[in-house]
Design goal:
Blueprint (H helix, E strand, L loop, with lengths): L2 E2 H8 L3 H9 L7 E2 L5 E3 L1 H15 L4 H8 L6 H33 L7 H4 L1 H23 L1 H12 L3 H22 L7 H17 L5 H13 L1 H8 L5 H12 L5
């Protein structure tokens, strides 16, 4: 069966403007242009649009989607299995948050007593899931599945007090780092204080701390553009400065 832009847009629940944009950026071209100048889409294009919308739902950028679906080795059937797995993970997270909200409502209405631990279950799971989505492949490749799984379990078993403390410590690390960066001296007291706060922050997530791993993770901040962008967002050079401060802090500066 074939569809015009308008009919395909209505069926897929997206605007005709979006479909025209997908054509312009060459991520979804029509099968043909008819004699009246209308874009016509066939079954292949319908299937490809489904894949694109799945990836969009999972938060993948259009630029990345284009690279994926235009790759000669792209396997649509395999991609659907991966979509299903990711969507089930997302559903599990949403179910946990919904359950958390329902318990909170019942607790407010005095229908049940909700423990402090239960109040934070959904948020801690989201923290783990978000981190896996952004950096899972890199950190698992660098530290191994066992270490990452232990770290994830540590987060999920945090007490409300620990959750509050790690949230505050996250902000403290950045504040100390940016203040120290203004001195330009990674060996100075302010920079070394930032390195120590960073060690404390890591210790919330790691099963055990080593100087080598501390240096390794800060080097990853420099090498990986996503980590670097996070630390350099407010002050360029912050990622490298933290790495240099940690090298001195751990005594591993060559």
């Amino acid at each position: 069966m074939e569809y015009t832009v308008q009919k395909l847009g209505q069926m897929a629940g997206i605007s005709t403007r979006t479909l025209r944009y997908y054509d312009e950026i060459e991520i979804l071209k029509p099968a043909r242009i008819n004699s009246s100048g209308y874009r016509i889409y066939g079954q292949n294009e319908v299937d490809l649009l489904q894949q694109i919308l799945f990836y969009r739902e999972l938060g993948v950028s259009l630029e990345s989607i284009k690279k994926i679906v235009t790759d000669p080795s792209f396997d649509g059937a395999k991609a659907l299995i991966e979509h299903r797995s990711k969507l089930l993970e997302k559903r599990e997270q949403l179910d946990l948050l919904i359950s958390n909200v329902e318990k909170t409502i019942a607790s407010t209405e005095r229908r049940l007593t909700m423990t402090d631990q239960e109040k934070f279950e959904g948020f801690k799971q989201k923290m783990v899931d978000d981190n896996e989505k952004k950096y899972g492949e890199e950190i698992r490749g660098k530290y191994g599945d066992e270490a990452v799984n232990k770290s994830n379990n540590k987060v999920k078993n945090m007490t409300p007090e620990q959750h509050e403390e790690i949230t505050k410590l996250t902000a403290d690390v950045l504040e100390a780092l940016y203040t120290a960066l203004e001195t330009g001296d990674p060996s100075g007291q302010l920079a070394q204080n930032a390195a120590d706060l960073h060690r404390q922050w890591l210790s919330f997530y790691w099963d055990s701390y080593t100087k080598e791993a501390h240096v390794g993770v800060t080097q990853m901040y420099v090498d990986d553009e996503r980590f670097k962008a996070y630390y350099d967002e407010k002050q360029p050079g912050a990622a490298e400065f933290l790495r240099d401060a940690v090298l001195i802090y751990t005594g591993m500066k060559k």
